[in-house]
Design goal:
With 387 residues, the protein is mainly alpha-helical. The chain has helices at 37-84, 91-106, 108-158, 165-308, 310-316, 319-327, 341-346, 354-386; strands at 2-4, 11-13, 22-23, 30-32. The chain is elongated and about 200 Å long.
C-alpha cells in the first residue's frame, strides 16, 4: 500500500499489521496507526483498570484511619512481647515478664504507675508535714524568746527611775535582742506559713492522686468486667455451639459407628454360630447316615443269612419267639421288591410248621428295616428344615 507523507510529501510503500504504528523514514511522521475493535478493547480495559485502582486507593484511604490504631496496638504488643521474651532462662524471670506483659496488655501498668505516684506523694506529704511540725516548733520558740525579751524590757521600764549604768546597757541590749527576736519570729512565722501551704498543696496533690488511682482502677475493673462478660458470653456460645455440634454431628456418627460395629460383630458372631451349627448338623447327619447304612447293611446281611438258612434259623429260635408269633395277629407286610416275598407266599404255615417261625423272623427284620429307614428319613427332613 502506497502512503503519501503529509510532512515531506514522499510516497512510501507500507506493509504493516493493523496494530502496527508506521513512521515515515524521512521526517518521522505517523503514516499508519492501529485501528479496529482490539484497540477499543484495550482502551476499555485501561479505563476499567484505572477505575479499579482509583476505587482501591479510595477504599484504602477510608480503611487506613480505622485500622491504624488497631495495627499500632498489635505492633506495640508484638514488640513488647518480643522485648520481654528475649533471653529468658530463669523461670521466675519468665513469670515476672509474663505478668508484666499481661499488665501491659490489660492496661494495669498504668494503674501501677498511678499507685507508685500515690506512694511518692504520700511520702512527700509526710516529709512536708514533718517540716511543718519543725517550723511550728521554731515559730513557738521564737515567740517564747521574744516574749522573754519583752518581759525583761518591761521589768526595766517599770523601775526606769532607778536605772544605773548597767541597767541602761542591759536595756539597750534587750531592745536590740527584741528587734532581732521579732525579726526571727517573723521569719519563723513566714516559714511556718509556707510549710503549711506546701503541706496543703501536697495534701491536695495526694488526694488528687488517690482519686486518679481510684478512677483508673474503676475504669480497669469496668474494662475487665466487660471483657469477662463478653468472654462469658463467648464461652457460652462456644459451649452451645459445641453441644449442638456434638448432638447433631458427632453423636450420630458415633452411634452409627457403634451400631455398624455392633451389627458387624453380631453378623460375624451369627455367621460363626451358623457355621458351627452347620458343621455339627453335617457331622450328625453323616453320623446318622453312617449308622443307618450300618443298620441297613446289618439287617440285609441278617436277612440274607436267614433266607439262605431257613431251617437252621428256625431251629435256633428260642421258645419265646413262638409266643411272640402267636401274639402277632396281623399278617406280615409284603414288599413288592423283596426277594423273600415269593417264598413267604408259597409257604403254608401251621402252628407246628418250622416255616412259620422263619416267616415271623423275616417280618421282624422287615419291621426293623422299615423303622430304621423311616427314622433316617425323618432325621434328614428335620435337618433339612432346620437349615
Amino acid at each position: 500500500m502506497d502512503v503519501k507523507c503529509p510532512g515531506c510529501v514522499n510516497i512510501s510503500t507500507v506493509f504493516s499489521h493493523a496494530q502496527t504504528v508506521v513512521l515515515c523514514s524521512s521526517c518521522g511522521t505517523v503514516l499508519c496507526q492501529p485501528t479496529g475493535g482490539r484497540a477499543r478493547l484495550t482502551e476499555a480495559a485501561e479505563d476499567a483498570l484505572m477505575k479499579s485502582k482509583a476505587y482501591l486507593e479510595q477504599l484504602q484511604a477510608e480503611i487506613r484511619p480505622r485500622l491504624s490504631p488497631v495495627l499500632l496496638k498489635v505492633q506495640t504488643a508484638s514488640d513488647t512481647l518480643k522485648r520481654l521474651t528475649q533471653d529468658v532462662n530463669d523461670p521466675k524471670e519468665a513469670l515476672r515478664r509474663a505478668s508484666r506483659v499481661l499488665n501491659e496488655l490489660t492496661g494495669y501498668n498504668h494503674i501501677e504507675a498511678v499507685k507508685h505516684k500515690v506512694n511518692e506523694q504520700a511520702q512527700m506529704f509526710e516529709a512536708t508535714r514533718g517540716m511543718v511540725q519543725e517550723a511550728k516548733v521554731s515559730y513557738e520558740d521564737a515567740i517564747d524568746t521574744r516574749s522573754s525579751t519583752q518581759r525583761g524590757i518591761n521589768e526595766l521600764l517599770q523601775r526606769k527611775h532607778l536605772w544605773t549604768g548597767e541597767d541602761v546597757t542591759r536595756f539597750t541590749e534587750l531592745y536590740r535582742l527584741e528587734h532581732e527576736h521579732s525579726r526571727a519570729e517573723t521569719v519563723a512565722k513566714e516559714h511556718y506559713q509556707q510549710c503549711e501551704k506546701k503541706m496543703d498543696r501536697e495534701y491536695m496533690e495526694l488526694a488528687r492522686s488517690i482519686m486518679e488511682r481510684y478512677h483508673e482502677e474503676q475504669l480497669w475493673s469496668d474494662k475487665i468486667r466487660s471483657v469477662s462478660t463478653y468472654g462469658t458470653w463467648a464461652l457460652m456460645g462456644l459451649n452451645l455451639l459445641l453441644f449442638v455440634a456434638v448432638q447433631t454431628i458427632f453423636e450420630p456418627r458415633k452411634r452409627k459407628r457403634l451400631t455398624d460395629r455392633f451389627e458387624e460383630l453380631l453378623v460375624s458372631k451369627v455367621d460363626e454360630e451358623e457355621e458351627k451349627i452347620a458343621e455339627m448338623l453335617a457331622h450328625l447327619e453323616q453320623k446318622y447316615i453312617a449308622q443307618a447304612e450300618q443298620q441297613q447293611e446289618a439287617m440285609v446281611a441278617t436277612l440274607i443269612e436267614l433266607v439262605a438258612q431257613p431251617t437252621l434259623a428256625a431251629a435256633a429260635l428260642p421258645a419265646e419267639q413262638v409266643v411272640v408269633q402267636d401274639e402277632i395277629s396281623p399278617p406280615p407286610v409284603l414288599i413288592e421288591d423283596d426277594e423273600v416275598a415269593p417264598e413267604i407266599i408259597m409257604a403254608e404255615p401251621t402252628p407246628q410248621d418250622p416255616s412259620m417261625l422263619t416267616m415271623s423272623k423275616n417280618s421282624l427284620v422287615l419291621y426293623s428295616l422299615e423303622s430304621a429307614v423311616a427314622g433316617g428319613l425323618v432325621a434328614a427332613l428335620a435337618m433339612f428344615f432346620w437349615k
